[in-house]
Structures are given as structure tokens and as C-alpha cells.
Amino acid sequence: MPAIPLSSQISHYSSGPQTHSLPLVPGHDPNGTRFAFNVSRAQFDVYTRLNATFTPGTPVNWFGGNFTNPQNGTPIPGTTFNVTIPSGAPPANDNVTFSNVLNVPKGNVSSTTYLRFDWRGNLGNFTKLSYFIYNDTKLAPIHQLTKTNQTSIMGGEGTSFTAGSPPVGCGPSDNCYDVTKYLGFNLTLVFAFNSTSQGKGLSIRVSNVAVVSADGLPINSYSHSMGLDPTDQTSMTVNHKSDLAIPTGYFANVTYPKPNGASGHLNHTWSNMILSFYYPNSYTTVKIVQNGTTIFPTTSPASPIFQGNCTAFFCTNSYVVSISNSTGIKHSLIIITANSNNLGAKVETTLGGIPTTTWGTGDLLQVRVTLRQGVNVTGSDYVTANKTSVQVTQTFTSTRQGISLLNFTTPIPQGASLFGLWTVNSTYNNMYDFGYNATSFTLQQLGVTGFSYSGSNQRLNTQGTLAYSPTNPTNINVNGYVFAIDNGAGPAPLTTPTITSGTGIYVSNISLVNGVFTTGQQLMIVFTLVNPSAGTRINSNANLTIEHEYASGTTHQSNVMIPLPSGYDTFTINSKYVYQLSATFTPAGIQIVVRGINVGGSSVSALLPPGNPPVTGLRQHAGLFKITIASEPLSGTGACVPSCSNGLESPAYAYVLVNPPVPGRLLATGSFTSSSTTGAFSTILSGRVLGANKLTFLALGTDSSGFAITVQGQSSQESTLLQTTLDSIPSVTQNQPTTLVLHLKSNSTALNMNLSVTLNVQDSNLKTIVTKTVSGIIIGPGQPKDVQFAFSAPPSVGTYTVTFLSPDYGAPLITGTLQVTVLPSNLQVLIPAIIGVAAAIVILLFFLFRKKPMPSPETTTKDKPAGGKAKPNPGTSTSKSLT
Question: How many domains, the chain?
Fold first, then answer.
């Protein structure tokens, strides 16, 4: 972590309140971090030549080291020694010994006491360097380390103990040993140097041998404020003020129990007492006041005991000043003041990185901030754009020194009272540094007035007038497009007419999948590449150029050349290849991704630069893409040697930020160029504007500087839906002449509908059996229209689907079912009755013309029944009749 010092490793001693950072307002002093200014305490005894012995003949050289005499500013002598044995020297077995003089006292700022020193050097072959630490009650060393043969000694070897702070800290390059358990004992430190007759030399430096008790981590301040220096007319200077408090109990004289349970106490007076102050090394004019007395900078010849870059493990890009306090302090209030640079070097409004001083309502503001170098940590930039009481504000986190493009996500509001000069304030704070600067821009508006439309779907006339606010310039020269959009409907493709021939590989068509979109959405484009050499397709290399245009045929240096996505087979297997282009409009230009839909392989990504005037996602606009393919055969001859180039422009798209009609279906477009004197414009739209539930018109365009139309003229939403009904479809016989009547009624209030309708009759296999088209159907606004379709029924019995379609409407108007039978249904009812009558007539003729029967003989008396003469049944007639 680039904190100074590391906040996670600092003791949070606090004797006062910590103020909290609030949203910054220019002119108000922000709060800084409490970790910018810190202090630590250390007590130590340093051992010099006066405390050392060495074997006769040892090539030792003593001199002063890092410690400075606080009274006269000169190095304390004898704190460092060098031993050098040259290559080829006689055998040596030398040592420098600090014998029984390293007293281990107890500190009153930490429970830990440690022995520390620095050693650095180099060893050749057949040489050896060691150090040994002995307790005066032990014969064996309690710690030792030996280095031999071609070794570089960098310090810190054999040590994992970290504690304290410069100049007597224990870091990765210091040699330290925790001797707390030897409190009250004297230690012996021996440095031994050995070289044989074959020795290739050694050189070693030992310095700053000391026994230390110190704060494990610095104490952070309890307040820190920052603000521009009011006396600096250039506003280049930032004033810092910090308050620290030193806890009680920091004294040179200490008393502690004797070791090993012996009765009584030991007394010790630490020879050096220091306060070490830490602050960023980019701060200047640092002043430290202790209890009302200035202790830094010191007055000559006095000097800090140590000052320089902090190398402790908790420091990053920090400076440390160690001030001597010979007897310690009971309690101390420290006030530190310092200066740093105002980091706000420059602020300006830009569009796509190009300085832009004129902005429009609805635009998303972009601010480029340049920050000077200070403490190299990230911070936040609070940027406000102000006009009287109206503000557009945003806080941008993770900004740091250098240049940053800060992009607002809230658009500039609309309102006539907001036109004119706006002030932009940038207030940067990373809790160590403060930066402020300001700039301004002019707010204008380009809008459409008097927009109207008339005509029919075949020829839709639109017109209006462009006007700048608050005042019109002398010339109003705007290129743009009028878009017809079905507001609220899902996207649908809008495709260019298909090209069917070309020399070399060419772009056959381009479709906008979603031609109207807004920030956070991608524009999806599909295009087809064709190799016209059918059957003998030529192996070809090819690349694409994707170019953005504000108007057809007008470039503005926003283009990129890319290879075709991998996976295509040099156009030898298929004649057509379909690709998808995804375009994301960003503050820095247009990010595109091209991939093959039917060829697989990886995609190709690229960034189209903003160009000039810039195209970005910060300003609404209209535009189009020109896709050009350049191809060359891998071998052979032909029309494309050395290469061919073919390009096609896409339909225009609408990128809308102000009240975007999304989701929306782009129906039709028409381009225009406004009059330079009045701002009037007109264009003719053609396309499928029928079938829209909420037909909305947008006029989008830009002038020569890239200033865009943001305000639309007021026009009511139009419906171009058709109400469609169909009388019940009767059953028919095979090939029977039939007429169906389609009832249409327009929902439009202003547009005439001119369309053709086709009747399709399909069987169960979706095969078209009958088709009938009626063209030139004119329907006035809100008027009904009946359309007759006369046709012959299908020749086969079955159930058929009847569909009414219109290429001008884009969707089926209505569907129904047609039943085809052998005979009409009424005849099917009469046939059983006719058959019954015919059968009755046959029976009648049978009874009328059949041969009469012979009469039966009279019955004799003896043959008569016993009951006498039989009487006829009164209910039975003897005559024959047919009922």
C-alpha cells in the first residue's frame, strides 16, 4: 500500500477528535489523512570505537556514520569501521569485539529491546566472515552467522526480526536480534575475519551498533487540514497543518527488576532519546513546533540526529527527521506545518480529448484534468459545472497524477435560463495532496422548431427549422437526418438494397439490427461479403476498413483498417459470408468488434478514433458506417490484380441521449442539409412507416464543429395501424369462382396510406395455391376502405389458410380458413331426400303394374270353422290403396 506510512501498520493513538471529509467546495479547506504526519519514539545506546577491542594487526579503519551530533551537526565519530584484507595477503584470523559492554536495559516506550547493526561487503574465495553474540553467563554464542567464499553481504542475512524506525530501526537490510529475555545482562558482540594463504580478499563495513527500545509503529496525527495559501497570488501553494500528541512516560532514566529473580532493581539512563517525524518527501517548508517551541528546522549549529529518506518497512516515499530529546518529555503537543504544490495543473472541457468550449443541453460533459506530481496515491476529483444555482456534479474516484479524462453520466439540463457561461471547478484530494483549478464553457442549444409532416407512406414529406439558442449565428449549416421511429416497438432490421454484382469481393448489403439506441447500448450491424467468382472462386486475401461518417460521403478521420476475422476460408467454399459488427460509443471513440456469423473463428476488435469533429458517446448524433473491403488474389491474374476495393454505406442510425425512444423500431430515414440563412430543412422519407403504433419523428444532425441537435420540435405521435376485418369465409367447391371482401380502416390522423395487398391461399403444406394482388389502394386519414379479391377456389378438396399481406405494412393484415368441398353444402342436404322420393316411385310402379292374383275357392261347409261365418275386420278395407 502506498500510504505514508502504511495506515494498517500505524498505532492509532488519538488524543483529539478526527474530523470527517465532506464533499469539497472550492474555497473550503478539505481534511487530509491522519497518516500524512506521524511520529515515533526511540531510546538507544550506540557503541563506538571507544567500546571495542580488536586483535593486533587487524586492518580496521574507524570513522563516523549516519548519526549526527545534535549540538554541532557533525557525524558522531567511531560509529562505523571498515576491514579490508586484500587478495594474496598473508593468512589472517582477526576480530573486532564489543566485550561485555552491550548492556540490555528495559525501555519505557516498548516491551522489546533489541540489538541491531548494519554490515555490508564482499568476500572472495578462501575467506570467511562471522559474527557471534554471547551472553556473559554463557560460553556458547546465543546467535551467530558465517559467510564464506564469493559472497555479497547486503545486510539483513539471518534476521527475520523487524521493529523500530530509522535511524535505529530493524528493516529487511538491517541485522537485528531480539534480546528482551536478556534484560539486565551484558552481551558481547564479536566480528571475526579469516583469510587463508589462497584468500582472494574481503572487504566489510560495520556501522551503527546499538541496543534499542522503540515504538513498534509510528503514532499518527489526530488532525490534518489542507487549503490553498491565501497569500499566494498564483494559487500554486497548498498549506498543511497537522496536530500530534506524544503519550506520557517517555524518559531517559529507567528502573527495572534484576534478572533471574534477584532482589532489587537496576537503573539505566539511555544515552540517546529521539523523536522521529515522518511526512511525504514531496512536502516542503516543514516546521515542527513542540509545546510552543520550534524544534525543526534547527538553528545552526544544532542539527537533527538523523534526517533523510525513510527506509523503514512502514514507509513509502517518506522523509524522516529525528530530533534529539536528551532527557525525554512528560507530555508533548506537536504542531506540524508544511507546504505542497497545488496539484491542479490544468482543467479543460474536451470532447473525445479535443478541447471544446461550446456544449449543448443534453450533452454529457467531459473534463480533462491534469494533476501535478505529489504523493503517488489515487484520490477523488470532485467536479462541478455551475450556472447560478444549477449544478451538474460528479465525483470521480481512482484519479491520480497525470492526465485524466473525466466523463459525466448526468446530462447538462435544458432551460432557457441556463444559456451562457458556465464555470467548471475541479477539486482533487487524495488525503495527502490537494488540487484545485477551474475553467468555463458556453452553453448553447440547437433545436428544431415548426416541425411538420404530410403526404403518404410512399412519399412522406417532413420539414422544419433549426435554431440556435440564445442567438443564431450568421450561417446555419447542419447536415442531418430525419428518422421515423415506432416508439416502444422492438428493434427490426433496416437494410440497404442488395448489390448483386461487383469486381472482386464486394459488400452486398448492410443491415442495422437496432438503428435507434442510447448510451449503454450497442449498435448491431450485419453485412454480407460476396465473392462473385462462382464455381471458380479465387483464393483471396482481404481486409476491412470501417469508417464513421456524420453524413453520406463526408469523412472526419474516424476509421480503422482490420483483417477479416480468422476462420474464413479465403472465400473458396462459400460465395457469401455474413459478418456482425458491434459498435459501442465511448468517450474516447467507437469500440468495434467484428465476427463471422457463418464462418466461426475468432473476432477482431479495434477502436475508431473520435476524429474531428469528434464522435463519442457523450453527445447525441446521427451517423452511418462505410464498410470497404479490399481484396487481392493469392495467385494468378485477373481484374483484381493487384487489388480491388469495394465499399457500401450503411443506413443512418440515431444515437439519442435526450428522451430516447427506446426500445424503438427504426422505420425510415431521410437526409437533409439546412439552409445557411434561415435554418430551414426538408426531406422525403420512404419506407415502411405503416404499422407503427406510436410513430415518432426525430431530427438529428451536427454542424461543422460537431455541435448537435438536442431539442426536437413538438409533434403529436401518429398511429399508422390498419384496422382490418373480413366477412365470414363460406365453404366453396373445387374451382368455384369466389370473392372475398377485406375491410380496412386507417388509424392515422394525417397521413394517406398507399398500399398494395396480396391474398395468399396455402394448403396444409404451406404451398401457395392461389395468389391475388390488388395495388393502388388509397386510404385517407381515418377513412375506411373495402377491397374485393376475386379468385377461383383451389382444385382440391381440403382446408386452406387465407392470408392477406402487404409489403408496405410489414406484417400479415388478417388470416382465415377456406373449406373446399366436392358439392355445395345445400346439395349435400337435398341428396338423401331425392334418393328417398325416387325409391318411393319405384315401389308404387311395382304395385300398379304387377300381375293380379287368382281368387281363392269358396270354403265348404265342412271346412267352415265352428264358430259360424267369419265376419270381416271392421278396421280393414277390402280395397287396395297407396298412401
Answer: 4
